[in-house]
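Form 7-S
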Amino acid sequence: MHLRIPASAALVGFTLACAGVDPSGLVGGGPPRGATAFEAPEPEVSVLALPVLVPYDTLEAAVQDRLPELLVDEEIDTGKNVRVDLTVRRPMAVRFASHEGDLRMTIPLAIEADLVRKRAAARRERLGKEPPKDATLTAGLELDVVTSYTLDADWKLVPDVTVTPRWTAPAILAVGPLKVDVTERVEEKLAAKLVETEAQIEARMAERSDLRPRIQAAWEGLATPKPAEAGAWLVVDPVALHATAPVATSEGLQLDVGVSGRFRIVPTKPEDSPIPPLPPPSPPTGSGLHLSMVAELGWDGLEAKAMESLGDATWPFSAPGVADAGQVVLRGIELYPSGEHLVVGLEYATESTVWDTSGTLWLLAVPELGPDRTIVLHDFDYAVESDDWTGAPVNAELIRDQIRGTVEGGLVFPYGDTLDARVAELNGKLAAMPLERGGQLAATLSSVLVEDVVLTDAGLGVRVTADGAAAIELTSLDR
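Output:
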């Protein structure tokens, strides 16, 4: 969900939709405000581990586009009356495979070298004729370029290259009708050239080996709050980045990447905070997805949900000699924390000919997870600050009990069906999510659970955990 990882933002929907609310805040009167007696626990560290696979056909296609078929076409002046017209072609596609965990690239080569006398060639060229070939060397060769990688502490991918030739056709020198196998002599000349070639390949790879600028940008992006659903914000406090050097497998080049961090969902945009320095790479911890986050359901949204549940509530009462003396009508609800309790302020008015009053009744309750995947409030009791109905011409205690029973039974926030729907929707999106530069992310959430509910100044804090699996397959190496 959250390397943007994209999956983390989608999970926000469950925490907000479980109670059908929009996050925000609220101020008002009543018992003392503030969840000062309780400090929400720090979310546990979440881990996203992603195996990334680059199939061999993707590597082959990338090299095919970059490596021309005609590799060498030049005239070599020997310093005497002889020059060598050399051509080296790639007659077939480059192949990739695993070599004991290292990446082996096989480059097929067809070599042809013509020995030409320069003065004779010049005379024939003035006459518009092809230069004479005094001798021709032909050979078939495959170069196995084996590369092993290490990832250093500064996010540089360090290659170690070994080039090994393998003859597919012997080196034959043809002089007129005479043909001589000169493979051994060519190998002696080739040995020094291969050392130079290895150094050139390593230098070319080193030009592209510094991953730090891209990793730094990803780290800063990860630590930047991002807007989520319903006006909320996803905040990630990254702890570590995990990465391994690429390893060649039977299917392609594979590396494991991941991130560890703490994920929070807050109802308003947080203030800017310093981004921690980029740490060195560390080995992946675990596999798949294990996410834990705290989401805050803002008080305004919870009040709207409470009014949706209790908005039509009325409580009829009688008076001495009057069976139907009137009713108490609910006009509004105010919610906020006070220490370890949730304050429920019930704004009321009476509709009666014998008792005309209005005000706010203050109830205290404790939120917790209820049965059948609900959030419930329990231990309801009236606060000392509640309106004093002493001397009312009605049975005030009976009315209070009726109100408390209605509120306790009505303020239940089910989230199960919404959670299931959101998980199914999210899995549908993550089943094959295309990547911008070619490839796809495939992920599945196998479980999403609400672990507990706590009070914070911003709202109800809901701790959510999710487990699943994810992998990335790249189909293009365009940069």
